[in-house]
Design brief:
The complex is a heterodimer of chains A (372) and B (397).
Chain A: H1 10-22, H2 29-37, H3 41-51, H4 53-63, H5 71-79, H6 81-113, H7 120-137, H8 139-165, H9 181-196, H10 216-242, H11 244-249, H12 253-258, H13 271-274, H14 276-301, H15 306-326, H16 331-371
Chain B: H1 2-16, E1 28-39, E2 42-50, H2 52-61, E3 70-77, H3 80-86, E4 94-96, E5 102-106, H4 107-112, H5 118-123, E6 132-137, H6 141-146, H7 155-169, H8 178-186, E7 193-200, H9 203-206, H10 210-213, E8 220-230, E9 233-239, H11 240-249, E10 256-261, E11 268-285, E12 288-304, H12 313-341, H13 348-355, H14 357-363, H15 367-370, E13 375-386
Parallel strand pairs in B: 1-4, 1-5, 5-6, 6-7, 12-13
Antiparallel strand pairs in B: 1-2, 2-3, 7-8, 8-9, 10-11, 11-12
Helix pairs in contact in B: 11-12, 13-14
Classes of the chains: A mainly alpha (372), B alpha/beta (397).
Amino acid sequence: MEDANNKISGFQLYIITFFLMGSLFVGFGIISMFTLAERDVWVSVLLSFITCIIPLLLFIYYINYEPDKNIFDKNKSLFGKWIGTIVNVIFCAFVFLLILLVLWNSNGLVITMYLTKTPPYFIIGIFVLAAIYANIKGIEAIARTSEIMFFISLIINTIIIISLGTQLNLDYFKPVLTGGFKEEIRHSLNFTSYLITPLIMIAAIPKKNIIKNKRYNRYLSAGVFAGIIKIGITFVLIVGSVSPEIATFYRFPAYYALRKISIGGAINNLENFLALHWFLNTFMLIMMGIYFLNSFTSNLFKTNSKKANYISLLVIGIVAVYFSIHIFGNTVDSIEFAKNQFPVIISLTLLILMFIISIAIFIKKVRKSLKT
Amino acid sequence: MKKIRILILILLLLPLTGCWNYRELEDLAIVSALGIDISDNDFDISVEAVNPLKVGSHSQSGSSSEDAPIAVFTTKGKTIREAVDKILLTSPKRLYLGHMNLLVISEEAAKKGIDEFIDYFMRDTEMRKSFAVVVIKNAKASDVLKILQPIESVTAANLQSSLETTNKYYGEISNLTLEEIVMCLFTKGRHPIIPTLEIIGDPKEGTDSDNVSTSDPKTIIKLSGSAVFKDDKLINYLDKDESLYYSIIRNKAPTTSLSFPCDDKFNYANIVIDGLGSELEVTIDKDMPKVKIDITGKSAITEFNCKMDLKNPSNLKKIEDMANKEMKKNMNKTIKKVQKFNSDVFGFEEQLYRNNYKYWDKNKKKWDEIFPNIKVKINSNIKIERISSSVETAKSR
């Protein structure tokens, strides 16, 4: 689908990346990282600065191949129409699963902490409807929305950092590395998988659609590292303010930490408002996920009409709402999936796929250079 | 197209109302305190529900209106949740636990173990975890909630205020919240210690409205010290003085006052200490932990009943030494008593776990043998900075 509103700035790309990096942590990444690494979670965060470099480089290599095309056209050009479509379907399945996971977890947080009696269809429906509306407006509207969300998130995070930063108890970080360093490397891979996996959605935006795209790699990398820093700070604040023992006990330790925030000792009970910044992350993934899937359907059916676009968005939305409620039987299954299956089944498979694609690009480039 | 957009926007607004969770204040019974007793392996739950429309008028007028501002409901259940739900059979309104600010545990329930019932309070999302927890000594938890007390008509508010005030101005009793208890239970190497209440007088007489209409109430509830736990089970008590020294060691008493003998004739002086702080260090000496506690604080003489020239700097030093000696003596007494209980409420083991993990890991199973024999060295460094408004003493004439 060719849309007139399809240009975004480098800064907006940075923001989208930044939000996507934190999107899998709501009720998912944080709980599994705490149950795995406990108080040493900050070591995993530090190591992830190294472990995320390989997937990031692969992604940049992939993006810079035929920069005028989006992920779907690239795959078709690399592997031919049929195999390319199969690869695209695999990518779409991954993205669809990410949307389902994020919706399930957002719904879990809302139902547990805010609206216990509200039907899940309504909670998930509100996220999806808003995301569909943003998608109707095009990627430019998504990017502008993300800009507004970024400044809201910045204010909220500043309040959180200042307030919880003063309550840090450094004793809670001790003893360090009782499980050994090797364990932390394994945990950092888990951490990287929660961070990097949603990045694939950015590939749906062709590089040419970024204004002044010469600095594309910089904006993308800055978004990735800012995302790691943000999540790293979150972990440090949780461990230092509520202790790792309590953090591992609760399903939403970040929400629990927010309960400790008090502004000047007079404004208390801000957790419901401050938790909004997590929903901004998940909302970004839902918007971008739907954009990714919608771009795929447009590419597959070669349709550019507005009507087809609406139908496609509506179908994606309805299917996402329905399946996100039924994806797991219970909360324990979802945590188990986040901890054990997700890093291997989803992230590792995606990484291998990116490796294969990168090799294919490399071979194609070599052949091209040999011909010339 | 415009119609579709408007339709989407209207649809977006619908779920924002939160109507499914809509609850009118007048349909709720706001629970201010919950008591736990145990009988025949069942939980006996008592809740103090506040009538918000009556509390304001009651406290303003200073006398009881026809409707009591509080009502106490009691039920039994195999679980806390079951018992709380059963209260609906007697209460016309649904209980709301979001504003609960006191949990009273009976001695019997505490002896059986707080693990038996604490899960409900930790798991419930409506309830805040910052309410105070107390143990009632030699009485039922339901008795505490039923007793009408002067000044503050709501028992929970009365007791929580007492706990906060006592801790803030005297440091005697640490005001312990549920989340701090959870922290103690889950942290390696520290056992909980919970404030204790005592009922002075006949509990039955305390439920009568006469108890608040007289200047000398027949039945009162008093803070009496602290309950010492081993893991989750109550094992013994500290009196209020020992509780103070526990609070000082755990750095939970910012201010206190200290009385000490200032001559050989049983005369006493008193100082108020501000900025009271303690530092706890656990080291290993000959494969045995050794504890060093440094106490610091600035004080002012508030009462001096001995004959001494306070204008003489060397005398001030002498008074400081007397105060520090008293502080050390009382602290040692408290520590020895707790060592006899063999419950590490001070967190010596926690210090080792955090700062000497290897030693802790090697000896964690033997800690019950190690703890009673740990040597504790106390350095008390309380400085007297002010002598208040008098430069002379009454006895210096």
